[in-house]
# Entry
Amino acid sequence: MEKKVLVIGGVAGGASAAARIRRLDENAEVIMFEKGPHVSFSNCSLPYHLSGVVEDSDNLILIDPETFKRRYNIDARVNQEVIKINRHKKTVTIKNLVSNQVYDESYDKLVLSPGARPIKPNLEGIDQSNVFTVRNVVDIEKIMSYIKQKEIKDIAVIGGGFIGVEVAENFRLADYRVSLVEFADQIMAPYDYDMAQILHKEMIDHDVNLILNDGLDRIGEKHIKTQSGKEIRAEAVVLAIGVRPETSLAEDAGLDIGTTGAIKVDHNYLTNDKDIYAVGDAIEVYHRLLHKPTRLALAGPAQKQARAAADHMYGIPSRNQGVIGSSSIHMFDLNAASTGLNVRTAKEAGFNYDYVYIMPKDKVGLMPNSHSMHFKLIYEYPTGKILGAQAIGKGNVDKRIDVIATMISMNGTLDDLKDLELSYSPMLGTAKDVVNHAALVGLNLLHGRYEEVKVSDVRELVENDAFIIDAREKNEYQAGHLKQAINIPLSEFRERLTEIPKDQPVYVHCRSGQRSYNMVMALRNLGYRQVYNISGSYLGINMYEYYNDLVTDRDRIVTNYNFN
Ligand code: FAD
# Structure
């Protein structure tokens, strides 16, 4: 007998599930309900319409209902909201939002992919016409027509997560004056505080008025007020402070909700009703490193879950390994990507961990467009099991992070990563790729071959008059250095050993950690016992210090910044 499958939600998870069901079963009747006017649009590309990178908002829509019907024989019904699931009758109740007609449709199997809605806090001014959120094509068109019609120049974006950052970036690219307000002490939570400083600098370099450690208090017609009392000019406000899973339909139908507040599903994305599946932003998933449920609002997982749910419906088994959380973002001239745990989440979860922070070249240095890549690798101590990584730079950070994501998924260790055979050509990478390099540094640390201090420790060292050697050449030192660092270049230190004390800790840095590492190893060989490499070196120190130097009146620890 022909199967009747209903799908709620017509975008990432919903459209993927419907299409997979059709591929598995040409005879099934598949109806997909979407309360908005469009199905299958590119949520992830929405911010790019604000800058004109995606010129025409119609291009955000990948497939229209007619094409769904013609190509896939899927009945995609837009402007139709499912308002109730009647489990005992195996029907859903739908409201046609254009005609207001209400009707029921029966199902054999039901797939929920209703997504997550932007959080709107209860604040003064929140319902004004100049306050927006970004979830769909209609939202982005509303913003565009408002700011054009009112000839708006000043925009505040609230929230420094993926959506907030992309919205802020695209408004700046279109030359609006943009303030970005974030409650935490950093934007982009997947990144550690030290790595986030690089992103903060990028924001400031592109004239985003970045306000951290402050929340939105109220919204006026031309200004917003922050919780610390700052008044910021903003004729339009975009809220991007997070999303909440759409669970009301499921809850009303008595489907289980998990500890994270999202719909609970089993290994096969089945809810506690054997005929109802749920996927995407509305569900909670299993974190394979933290061993507990989590929420992960990303497009890739939504599509994979949709396929797995459809497969299960047709008896095809799939392996649910849980998630590790891999993501990437483009920000002005930088790319950033991360996977797995960061130091914060590893610490919270009680892992015994250490990490490597390096900045090798992403391509052979002679090649055009060769840049330093800031790369942080987190691993478990003493097993060397890889827990996570973050990469920021102008080049292919995503390639490196995808390698690490693969390693994590296969329970890889630093030894596995060290030996990993990767492709190389000078224009594309280096013979010892960034990720191999990180593994070598990690193994040196793991085996106690040398010791290091972190970039976040340097201020305290400087303030406490520690003995710091700057191993760069004289001209580099003169262009900017740590305030009381002594310049003993790697090329001279063997003749100047008398200047280096053996009876106190000695800290060594250069530009990127390469020369200082060589000096540290040599000094250890010469009997120095308290000698430490400064991880991150001068480039990392500058990145780490810059934003807070700018926004506070503290003393700088460098004579001059140098970001090259
Ligand atoms: P959605 O794709 O949101 O689809 C849910 C649909 O269900 C909605 O259209 C909604 O209208 C409809 N619906 C809800 N309730 C009902 C109902 N009762 N009846 C009928 N229809 C209903 N992820 C990435 O991995 N990378 C990115 O770069 C990225 N960028 C993003 C940028 C933006 C601006 C946004 C908003 C999201 C971005 N995401 C990104 C997240 C990604 O889009 C989501 O994780 C993904 O779309 C989730 O799929 P879903 O099917 O669960 O929900």
User: Anything to note?
Assistant: The mean pLDDT is 97.
